[in-house]
């Protein structure tokens, strides 16, 4: 939750990229019954509003039970005695009869608008609830909007429960700016409400408790941690920190680990291994070890027996942590934020309908003015219904995309691990590994990277490409790219196409340079847009001493004795004339390789000055 006091620091002149901040999304479970979880959330929400100087919202008015229904059944269950076409839910908070499919008797969404309250003239609260869309169960939702510099803060809390299983709690915080040119923080901070609710709800992620602060583990607790890492029900990343030999554990946890994990509440679980636990852990997970003060993020579905799976789980070295603790905390939170955005919603939350806010009903009256007002209201109601249907369709499509991404990553990781084991056993590239290169994810088949951090950790998956540049320029793109820009994905597409071109070029079957390859890509090969493949720089750039020097990039001595070569050929990453670039040298006819000397922001030219 945010407040005017905490957001007053988010000024419009903040350094950094222009555009919206990355939202915060928390999805956890609680063992509390649905009604208790909703009551607890309302209590904390009311307390915060009172603290901020607003009146507490009144409790939602109970909806009368259906007149034809004499008794009630457990929430979300069909009552055989109820009239056809209705779902029985307990009378009380947000209890509503919901129409169902008369053939399949599947509960549909009750068309009940949200209750809207304006509190204190600066806080707007929407709340609604009812049966889940297309399935048995129920939900309650609260949406709070508060003013912010050049925009609005929006906080959405959704609690949903199916027939079986736990109660799901999802908290989303985002900032809506009034214009794309406003400078904002790069990410929405962890809401205060998340820090308050997590311990009260006894929040969990599958087998793991989701706590506010990292927990120190001893050697006897390592087996439980390994079981947690390998549990298929785990949705959140698990962050494991080691302690350097020259620092005491209490000192290291207080001064380094706690501040480092300050952006993780609700997004990941965090642990610290004491010296005995570190030894036990690294012996048990030889391919996924962590030591020397480093911190490792273990993504869902760890395969402890796979050396290649270890490359999936990023490591933050002690050196980078101590260089800039604040920046390291942002880097550590990057993967949990990405997973929170891409992870498919569990069925109860996915079945929650989009929020409907009904148009204001005109006052009753007579005469031409009343008739005109009624006609205008009918038009507004129809437009609102269409907008809601379109928004629901977009929400459903986003859920399908999330499922597709998850299947792609899961399938790619499995094939990658299998290919690695086959390669390790035979000492060469097997036919199975060769086929794995043609999967949608690219050469490593672990899915298309969503960040440059992941891309640079996997760039060695291209056997005929050699990266000779400085990784910092590529990693910096993660800090400045706009949400949805897809720069890392487009870069991966370009590297995949370069690899396939190099494979053909060393055999003398490319039929020209890479530009021609893109224009006439053979069937079955990865296509890269020809307009984004540029053969060389302009004469102006080549003749400008400083600009040319920027493009003199590292190469091995076998290519040039000076260990530098001009790399004018490049790929355009993203749209626009000043978008990022990938510069390379095609030496397939010499050393049989392509050298990538630079991935980063557009180098200096007439348009960037």
How would you describe the overall organization of this protein?
The protein is of the alpha+beta class and 609 residues long. It has helices spanning 4-7, 34-51, 192-201, 222-230, 249-260, 275-284, 318-323, 325-342, 347-350, 368-426, 431-436, 452-457, 471-475, 477-480, 487-505, 514-519, 539-543, 545-550; strands at residues 24-30, 115-119, 123-131, 137-148, 151-162, 167-177, 204-205, 208-209, 215-217, 238-241, 269-273, 295-298, 315-316, 465-467, 533-534, 552-554, 564-566, 570-572, 581-587, 593-600. The strands form 5 sheets. A 6-stranded antiparallel sheet has the order 1-6-5-4-3-2. Strands 9-11-10-12-13 form a 5-stranded mixed sheet. A 5-stranded mixed sheet has the order 14-20-19-18-15. A hairpin with a 5-residue loop joins strand 3 and strand 4. Helix 2 runs antiparallel to helix 3 (192-201). It starts with a helix and ends in a 9-residue tail after the last strand.
Keywords:
single chain, 609 residues, alpha+beta, 6-stranded antiparallel sheet, 18% strand
Outline type: globular
Rg calculated over all Cα atoms: 28 Å
Overall mean pLDDT = 77
Structural class from helices and strands?
Answer: alpha+beta
Adjacency order of strands in the biggest sheet: 1-6-5-4-3-2
Low-confidence stretches: 2-18, 63-110, 415-440
Query: How big a fraction of the residues is strand?
Result: 15-25%
Largest sheet: 6 strands, antiparallel
Helix content: 25-40%
End-to-end gap: 42 Å
Q: Tell me the number of helical segments per DSSP (H or I, 4 or more residues long).
A: 18
The total beta strand count reads 20
């Amino acid at each position: 939750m945010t407040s005017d006091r905490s957001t007053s620091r988010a000024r419009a002149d903040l350094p950094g990229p222009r555009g919206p901040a990355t939202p915060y999304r928390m999805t956890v479970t609680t063992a509390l019954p649905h009604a208790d979880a909703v009551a607890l959330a309302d209590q904390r929400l009311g307390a915060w509003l009172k603290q901020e100087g607003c009146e507490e919202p009144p409790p939602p008015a109970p909806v009368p039970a259906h007149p034809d229904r004499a008794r009630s059944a457990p929430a979300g269950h069909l009552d055989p005695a109820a009239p056809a076409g209705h779902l029985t839910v307990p009378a009380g908070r947000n209890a509503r009869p919901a129409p169902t499919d008369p053939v399949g008797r599947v509960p549909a969404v009750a068309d009940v608008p949200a209750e809207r309250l304006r509190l204190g003239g600066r806080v707007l609260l929407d709340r609604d609830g009812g049966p889940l869309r297309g399935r048995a169960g129920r939900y309650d939702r609260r949406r709070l909007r508060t003013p912010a510099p050049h925009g609005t803060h929006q906080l959405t809390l959704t609690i949903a429960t199916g027939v079986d299983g736990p109660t799901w709690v999802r908290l989303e915080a985002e900032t809506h700016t009034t214009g794309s040119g406003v400078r904002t923080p790069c990410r929405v901070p962890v809401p205060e409400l998340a820090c308050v609710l997590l311990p009260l709800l006894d929040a969990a992620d599958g087998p793991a408790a989701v706590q506010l602060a990292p927990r120190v583990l001893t050697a006897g607790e390592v087996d439980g941690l390994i079981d947690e890492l390998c549990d298929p029900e785990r949705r959140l990343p698990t962050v494991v920190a080691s302690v350097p030999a020259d620092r005491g554990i209490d000192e290291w946890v207080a001064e380094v680990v706690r501040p480092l994990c300050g952006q993780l509440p609700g997004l990941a679980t965090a642990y610290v291994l004491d010296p005995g636990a570190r030894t036990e852990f690294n012996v048990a997970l030889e391919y996924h070890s962590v030591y020397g003060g480093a911190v490792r993020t273990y993504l869902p579905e760890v395969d402890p027996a796979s050396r290649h799976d270890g490359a999936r789980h990023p490591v933050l070295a002690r050196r980078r942590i101590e260089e800039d603790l604040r920046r390291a905390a942002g880097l550590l939170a990057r993967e949990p934020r990405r997973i929170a955005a891409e992870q498919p919603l569990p069925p109860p939350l996915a079945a929650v309908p989009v929020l409907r806010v009904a148009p204001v009903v005109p006052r009753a009256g007579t005469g031409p003015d009343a008739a005109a007002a009624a006609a205008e209201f009918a038009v507004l109601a129809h437009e609102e219904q269409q907008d809601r249907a379109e928004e629901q369709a977009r929400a459903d499509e986003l859920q399908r995309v999330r499922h597709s991404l998850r299947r792609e990553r899961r399938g790619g990781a499995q094939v990658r691990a299998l290919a690695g084991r086959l390669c390790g056993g035979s000492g060469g590239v097997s036919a199975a590994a060769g086929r794995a290169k043609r999967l949608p994810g690219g050469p490593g088949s672990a899915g298309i990277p969503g960040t440059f951090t992941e891309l640079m950790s996997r760039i060695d998956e291209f056997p005929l490409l050699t990266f000779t540049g400085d990784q910092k320029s590529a990693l910096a793109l993660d800090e400045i790219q706009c949400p949805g820009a897809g720069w890392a994905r487009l870069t991966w597409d370009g590297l995949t196409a370069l690899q396939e071109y190099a494979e053909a070029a060393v055999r003398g079957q490319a039929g020209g340079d890479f530009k021609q390859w893109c224009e006439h890509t053979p069937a079955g090969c990865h296509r890269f847009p020809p307009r984004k493949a540029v053969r060389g720089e302009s004469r102006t750039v080549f003749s400008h001493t400083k600009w040319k020097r920027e493009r003199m990039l590292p190469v091995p001595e076998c290519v040039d004795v000076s260990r530098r070569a001009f790399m004018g050929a490049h790929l355009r990453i993203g749209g626009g004339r000043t978008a990022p670039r990938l510069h390379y040298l095609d030496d397939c006819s010499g050393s049989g390789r392509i050298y990538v000397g630079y991935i980063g922001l557009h180098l200096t030219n007439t348009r960037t000055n």
